[in-house]
Amino acid sequence: DLKPENFLFLHKAPIEGNMLKVIDFGIAAHFVEGTSPFTEQTGTPYYVAPEVLSWPCAQYGKECDLWSCGVIMYVLLSGRLPFRGPDDQRTFQKVRKGKFAFPPEVFGEVSEDAKRLIRRMLVTDPAMRITADQALGDAWTRCHAPSAAPAPLVGSVVQAIRTFQAGSKLKKAALHIVARQMDEGQIRQLRNIFIELDANGDGHLTGPEFAEGLRRADLGSSNLAEDLNTMFASLDTDGSGEIDYSEFLAATVDRRQYLNEAVCKAAFRVFDRNSDGLISKEELQHVLGSDPDVMQAVGKDSVHALLAEADRDGSGAIDFEEFMAMLRR
């Protein structure tokens, strides 16, 4: 449900250096090319695309998001809505017609490039509407949207991957949980590195993308091919042939950060479901079974064997000290 209200800055601070985040994925869905179109009529009246409002049966795909982006851009540049009626039904009528204008009193200082981009997004026929790639390559976007600063792989991150490779399966599973307890400030560099490596921006790292990042890091390794294969395999915990963001974070988070007691306590509480200060076999089984990323990290090892990795006193459960000791190893 793309609309200005669902874009929030991470901090109450100047825009420069701040992060803009999208929220409210309540009606979001993953769209795969070649599959059946969506049919549910949903969204916010002012921002919904005309094909979503088709009657009696809506059929639409990812193109609807570009329409919403066009409306958002119009609003940000003018403070007005391009399609607005006295009630929802009449707003829908205006959306279906798709007719809008650029009143000179509010668009007088807006460039022709900006207005052209809006026109390309607010096309009622989705087949004729601009794509996301075309919008990113548009003259207005290229001239006015600042490029992200380069964030290459660095030696400390590569070393973190090597340490992750050598860790126990339970430690790898725990690091997936630990990484999620960290705030944006702690993982900013890793996020930027992931984005830099993800050349096609699909949210996954392929072997060639990872290899190119390792090559550009120029860390002086004489066994680059061997390093690539072993590193990639250790990060690809689900065996998909790709590394997703969660897998990357779990493997690259800095040791000094993941050994922060507050972060570890938050992660421990995820496992310790009844808050008795111990992680039992049943609790470990529950977390592993309910989280695909964590489950893939441990493979087919039995819960009993995983518990034994950290249960130093043989009590049949893991306390917080044992949990920390396992992460330190």
From TrEMBL:
Keyword Calcium appears in the UniProt entry: yes
MF GO annotations: ATP binding; calcium ion binding; protein serine/threonine kinase activity
SUPFAM superfamilies xref list: EF-hand, Protein kinase-like (PK-like)
Ranges where the Protein kinase domain occurs: 1-141
Domain spans labelled EF-hand: 185-220, 223-258, 259-294, 298-329
Required cofactor(s): Mg(2+)
UniProt keyword list: ATP-binding, Calcium, Kinase, Nucleotide-binding, Serine/threonine-protein kinase, Transferase
Keyword ATP-binding: yes
Family under the similarity heading: Belongs to the protein kinase superfamily. Ser/Thr protein kinase family. CDPK subfamily.
Name listed for the protein in its UniProt record: Calmodulin
